[in-house]
Amino acid sequence: MQPPLRTTRRHLPGILAGASIAAVGIVLILSIGLAVDHWPFAFDRAIILGVRAWGGPAWLPKVAADITALGGGIVLTIVVVIVAGLLIVQRLWLTALAIVAASVSGNVIVELVKLQIGRPRPDIVAHLVTVSHMSFPSGHSANSAIVYLTLAGLASQVTQDRATRRYLLVVAILLVGAIGCSRVYLGVHWPSDVLAGWSFGTLWALAWWLATARARQAIGGERHAFGTPPPDPAS
Predict the structure, then answer these.
(1) Is the dihedral of CA 129, 134, 139, 141 positive or negative?
(2) What is the average pLDDT across 204-225?
(3) What is the Cα–Cα distance from 197 to 185, expressed in whole angstroms?
(4) Domain 14-219 classification at class level
(5) Dist CA 185 CA 140 (whole Å)
(6) How much is the pLDDT for 226?
(7) Hey, where are the domains in the chain?
(8) What is the SS3 assignment for the chain?
């Protein structure tokens, strides 16, 4: 006989809440800056030129290219498919569906915004990797935040151990931060592109956290919490 459904009501993780507040602040700053200035902003040029003048150690361009690949479409798709499969095996259907839906819909919106705004790529330094398409917002920054922060955020709803929940969120934030910084270092995005991408992806992850938490409460929770072994078939 199957055990009763377990429901665990989670509060919004402080780390995700703090990142979301920062994202709102960045959006406001960029909006005000755009109202009184024009692209590229003064800090855009200063940061790109400063980073390129610094250059860093000889191995850094290769490392930056490898890090930036973690925010590419192929890698993110593989991550989403693998995680969604794991969640389905764990019988966490709602979480799996939410992760896939958040990733796909977020990417579509980012691409539409890119086409609508049509901001050119930086042309004041040589690009260290091949790029195409428009510049604003940074697709790598936005999509990595959409995928990794959503994964970590939704995992926090179905993971029992508090330390594990915090670890996943911290790793996701550090990874998203590294990917965005690599885009500026490689000369393929203005810093404001990356800031906008981070902000959108973070707020998107927050929205899906809230929507999924509400849906889980409405249906009485998923079959069992992540990390709890499924019922013994022999019992």
Answers:
(1) positive
(2) 82
(3) 16
(4) mainly alpha
(5) 13
(6) 43
(7) 14-219
(8) CCCCCCCCCCCCCHHHHHHHHHHHHHHHHHHHHHHHCCCCCHHHHHHHHHHHHHCCCCCHHHHHHHHHHCCCHHHHHHHHHHHHHHHHHCCCHHHHHHHHHHHHHHHHHHHHHHHHHCCCCCCCCCCCCCCCCCCCCCHHHHHHHHHHHHHHHHHHHHECCHHHHHHHHHHHHHHHHHHHHHHHHCCCCCHHHHHHHHHHHHHHHHHHHHHHHHHHHHHCCCCCCECCCCCCCCC
For residues 142 and 162, the answer to whether their CB atoms sit within 8 Å is no
> Which residues are known catalytic residues?
140, 189
Gap between the Cα atoms of 121 and 48, Å rounded? 12
How much is the pLDDT for 4? 40
Token reading at 137: 């917002």
Residue at token pair 């022999």:
234
The predicted-structure confidence for 87-143, as pLDDT tens digits, reads as follows 999 889 999 999 999 999 999 999 999 998 888 889 899 898 988 888 899 999 999
Residue 175 · residue 127 · CB < 8 Å: no
Rounded Cα distance between 126 and 79, Å, is 31
CA distance 215 to 235: 30
**Count of Cβ atoms closer than 10 Å to residue 157 Cβ:** 25
| Cβ(187)–Cβ(127) below 8 Å | yes
d(CA 183, CA 128): 10
- pLDDT at 98 (0 to 100): 94
